[in-house]
Design goal:
By secondary structure, the protein is α+β, with helices and mostly antiparallel strands. The protein has one domain: Alpha-D-Glucose-1,6-Bisphosphate, Chain A, domain 4. Helix content is 34%, strand content 31%. It has 4 helices and 6 strands, in the order αβααβββββα. Strands 1, 2, 3, 4, 5 and 6 form a 6-stranded antiparallel sheet that branches. It is elongated and about 70 Å long.
Length: 180
């Protein structure tokens, strides 16, 4: 819970800074899918099962209802898939208001000595799902400057979650024996 609060605080601060600048952050776009995609292979000591267990522990610590957000948990293949959401906000006369909810997919692929994370499929939840890549098009007739702020919030939230994931995937500290 503390981590989610710190993520939210970080997101709000970053959004305020971007709002002051008035520009959208440079977001990673997958060349094949043309979707906003955060992807990295991280070298990490451990067997596939060790990494799987660390990932499950991280999920349990970082999500309110881990069983609900997790769509796939397969220790044999080393695959975990989550669908979760980011709540966007905007400031109206000093009061934070909800601007909508963006769903995203997180895919964790675990192998001996490494894992890969992929954050993708960011969609604004409405009557029909709207890919947030639409917000990148400043020539769109519907474009509003607030879209840059929303993209910055998604970027900050995702980067904070990635850092948290990397820390959670580290091997546990070896406890010294109290042998006397």
């Amino acid at each position: 819970m503390k981590r989610l609060l710190s993520i939210l605080l970080f997101t709000l601060i970053t959004a305020a800074l971007v709002r002051a600048q008035g520009t959208a952050p440079a977001l990673p776009i997958d060349e094949d899918t043309k979707l906003i995609t955060y992807k990295e292979v991280v070298q990490q000591a451990g067997t596939k099962l060790d990494l799987f267990n660390r990932a499950v522990e991280w999920i349990n610590k970082n999500y309110k209802n881990p069983a609900d957000v997790t769509k796939v948990r397969n220790p044999e293949t080393g695959l975990i898939e989550l669908i979760h959401r980011i709540e966007l906000s905007y400031d109206e006369k000093g009061v934070s208001r909800s601007a909508g909810i963006v769903d995203y997919t997180l895919r964790l692929e675990l192998k001996e000595g490494r894992y890969r994370y992929t954050f993708t499929n960011f969609n604004l939840k409405q009557a029909s799902r709207v890919p947030i890549e639409k917000w990148l098009d400043k020539s769109d007739k519907a474009y509003i400057p607030a879209w840059d702020n929303y993209l910055a919030q998604v970027d900050a939230y995702t980067k904070t979650l990635i850092e948290s994931l990397k820390k959670g995937m580290e091997p546990p500290a070896v406890k010294k024996s109290d042998d006397w």
